[in-house]
Structures
1.
Amino acid sequence: MIEKYNKLSIAPMMDWTDRHCRFFHRQLTRRALLYTEMVVADAVIRGDRERLLGFDAVEHPVALQLGGSDPEKLAEAALIAADFGYDEVNLNVGCPSDRVQSGTFGACLMKTPDLVARCVEAMKEAVPDALPVTVKCRIGVDDQEPEQALFDLARMVADAGTDAIWVHARKAWLEGLSPKENRDIPPLDYGIVYRLKAQYPNLFIGINGGVKDLNQAVAHRDHVDGVMLGRAAYHEPGLLAGADRAIYRDSAPLPDLRDVVHAMADYTDRHVASGGRANQVARHMVGLFHGVPGARQWRQHLSTEAVKTGATGDVLRDAMKRIDGAALAAA
């Protein structure tokens, strides 16, 4: 599963990669691995599991990212994820938000690689052998020396049996930078991730951070096994339409964005009929036609109409009329 799908992944992004976003992204790429938002292990164990973990079968392959630092709780949550049918379970060792710092998990775990290894080992023991357990981390936090922090973590989780390590190629500063600033200000160091892969030729190593388009993703693939797209895929999702061809050399026809919109309009109708709101779907689609004539009118229509009471999938159908069909066909 890892080798087949993880050449390209869409990063877990809080408040963004919910089930509606993932359903949308799956209309654009059949093969990229889609990640959930981070879900805390305690919530999985005690909360509304269908609300937190439910997903449409169309989303496969889909991975659940867990947050936590208690091996027993993470193992229990991982087993629940397995029962839900996820294709991978990932441990968050990279998020620097105040929430994770108060719970001493996420990027804080970079300081305790032995604990991360125990968490991975417990999760691996809990789930079926066929279910990959992976780690997503930073290259270090605060004043850590990345060459030591990253390689120590990698050695310990590799020994614990992790199936893959995804590395956001920046430090995280737990003091002094906000979560948003931590996504931009610490400098990228792709070279250290390349060196990690060279040291672990038989372990899947993926790279994340600052990848803006598919050309950059293809270039990274010369050095590592997989590439994870984050904000670029969210803000300009149309780029995912070329992902299967660029990354997987898939010869299938590229998805027609008009067909994607109509599929999402039908999906929105179903969501509204079940008690949801149109904007919960449409908000993820605002950037779909980036660079296409009519894109501004598309964005404006979704932003003003999808939030209205009674809005349905017709919001998307009507917004589609703002797009220049001839320019889209030529794109």
2.
Amino acid sequence: MGLDMGSKTIGVALSDELGIVANGMGTISRQGTDRDLKTLADLVSKYEVRQIVVGLPIRMAGTVGIEAKKVLQFVEKMKRSLSVPITTWDERLTTVQAQRVLLEAGLSRKKRKKVIDKTAATLILQSYLDAEQTRASS
């Protein structure tokens, strides 16, 4: 499962069983840490998730800023409450890439806003899956 952590929503993507293709699932409206963790635990159980990949918003210079620190704090809480491995993944330019994909698809600004987090989560997960495939074939 791939996650794009935002302050208001969490974008969610799932891969196929073989871990080859990422598919956008939707978004979770943030409702506080405890409720967010419960919602994620429910998704892990429902979809038999074996691993979670969380996008880490590292700055372009490669440094960890305020947003990345918030994500890392939440990841630590996830690790304590969920029973699956959790990995962070550099998500630099993912939102920009998601915007480009949605613009090319001809979506209006209003429609893009509704699916941007899900699209970013899909791109994060797909990037991770591609890297794992490359690593496995090396």
3.
Amino acid sequence: MRALRGIRDYSPDDYSRLEGLRSIFLELAKVYGFRMMEPAPMETLETLEEKSGPAIRDEIYYFKDKGGRDLGLRFDLTVGMTRYACADRAAPLPIKLGAFAGVWRYDEPQHARYRWFYQWDVETYGSRNPESDCEMIEFTSHLLQKAGVRNHIVKIGDRRLVQEFIEKKLGYRGEKAVELMRALDKVDKKSRKQLVEEYSKKGFSTDALLRMLDFGETEGSPDVMLAKLNEESLKSAEHLAELRDQLQAGRAKIGLSVKIVRGIDYYTSTVYEAFDLDRPGLGALAGGGRYDLLPSIFGRPDLVATGVAGGAERLMMSLEGTVPWTLGGRPVYVAYTGGMTKEAMAVASTLRHGDIGAIVDLQRRSLSKQLEDAARVRAKLVVIVGPREHAEGEVVVRDMDTRQERRVSMGKLVDELSKDVGR
């Protein structure tokens, strides 16, 4: 009895972390003015292919339903969000949407990669200005900081810059230029020798490939990078300079990287990926960019778009063992002595109706065992219901951190505990 390959169950601890991340995302999305939604879990296969072409069938779950229609499970949130935004022609611009939901991909399962996983996503439709790209990058860095990934960087590139270099310096245009960009997208996965062998067979000169790879190694701080790009006399660098100026007014942790050319057939200009510098083996924690063509395919050429998304699982892996997320904060544990089970249940009920998380012993264990259990669940406070104190209308409250105890009147219990654990 096992879960399917590439599909996993969420343990209570993992689910608590997931909900903790969701709450951080929802709070921050609201701060930035994104309105939350959830796109449909299934789309027509035709709709899903609009983003990545028929080849996407190899990477998704698709099927015929009982009506004979070709359908597929969503492989990201962007397609559904864009379809939704394009359909609302009366909406004032810009349209800012956010979502946090599960997606399905038929990838080969491996470390940090599942076939069903949760994704967070924010998108802005209707703004051509770099301010919207700046906001996406700022949001990405801000989210990672709030989640606890302190040592991170958002690497920014622009596919127009790479295309201009290939056309002006190497002499390749059209599909040949795009093919050469694909080589740049593989530099972190293959050696130079492998890339030269692969692309020599496709008709590219070794000299052009090596110049391309040398150019792809250009990355670093924005100021240093832009100085190097200006030496190449690339007009497209002006767009990155403007974006740099806007981002420097904020607090995002950024760098520029020529080799960030993700989604060559999808993104149209600015692209970026975020990395945990302490755990580079995880790969990108988030990625995004400007994709002005997809809304046009859905009948809205006026609705240019930019967005960013990240996998919740990969972010949780980055934080594993460093952030003890517990949904709703640390609970209160209700313990008892002298067979006071009914009274303990009543106390737990009072706390819960006062919006205080409460756990009550259900095993009728000794007080010492109950205190051990309270430590296991990381309870902040333990309310001890004993015969003597109960007869006087009070309970004993123990602070598990300081080990100090005090007696509290039952009538004031919710108010007193709210001060210590919050609501």
